[in-house]
Amino acid sequence: MSRVRVRQHVNPLSQKYQTPIAAPPWEKIYADFFQPLHLDIGCARGKFLLTMAEKYPDWNFLGVEIREPLVIEANEQGRSLGLTNLHFLFGNINVEPLNFLRSLPQAPGRVSIQFPDPWFKTRHSKRRVVQPELVQALADVLAPGSLVFLQSDVALVAREMAAQFENQPEFKPLTRGDNPWGVPTEREIACQRLGRLVYRRLLERR
């Protein structure tokens, strides 16, 4: 299958991306939808989740991505590998995030947000994926002990993401500087190859 070429960045505030994410019939998506759920927000081409689904068959994995061609490609790859614990959804996580999280088969036990689009300019900060409404929605839905993993190679973005969660009293930071699951994203691999620093934060729902 040829690699899909898409724009690196899309504006999440444009009208095109304001439709809430529709939940599919989960019983037709996962072979066992009672398994614990890992939600990866901004999953890009889904390589991280494809590997995670193979490594951890006793977990279900869900990727959300705003670039629809990447979602189509990732689902095709998951089907070709016969993975029944993996699915990808197209949409903007910041459109009615609480309703979306409540539509999941169960509250995620793990959430990852990795190398999101940085949107460097201050006037574009509302385009960044980690917004107060999303953090509050996760605080409302996640059960105590659930984990949130953040990472970026942009120090400003990493600090801002961490601050958004640490300013929410339901989350407490854990002292860990590595990837807790040992499965790197494509961007993480590129950073390692180039010797770029990666800034990480692992948090737990109190």
Characterise this structure.
This protein has one domain: Vaccinia Virus protein VP39 (Rossmann fold), CATH 3.40.50.150. The mean pLDDT is 94. With 206 residues, the protein is an alpha/beta fold. Strand 4, helix 5 and strand 5 form a beta-alpha-beta unit. The N and C termini lie far apart (44 Å). The protein is built from seven helices and seven strands; from the N terminus they run H-E-H-E-H-E-H-E-H-E-H-E-H-E. Helix content is 31%, strand content 18%.
Could you outline the blueprint of secondary structure elements for this entry?
Layout: H1 26-29, E1 37-41, H2 47-55, E2 60-65, H3 68-80, E3 86-90, H4 97-102, E4 110-114, H5 132-141, E5 147-152, H6 155-166, E6 171-174, H7 186-194, E7 199-205
Parallel strand pairs: 1-2, 1-4, 2-3, 4-5
Antiparallel strand pairs: 5-7, 6-7
Defining traits:
seven-stranded mixed beta sheet, 7 strands, 7 helices, globular, alpha/beta, 206 residues, Rossmann fold
**CATH class placement:** Alpha Beta
Structural class: alpha/beta
Average pLDDT reading:
94
- Gross morphology is globular
Q: From N to C, what is the helix and strand string?
A: HEHEHEHEHEHEHE
Biggest sheet architecture: 7 strands, mixed
For the secondary structure, the number of strands is: 7
Number of domains: 1
Please bin the fraction of helical residues: 25-40%
**Strand order, sheet with most strands:** 3-2-1-4-5-7-6
- Per CATH, the architecture is 3-Layer(aba) Sandwich
Strand coverage percent: 15-25%
Please work out how many helical segments DSSP would assign.
Answer: 7
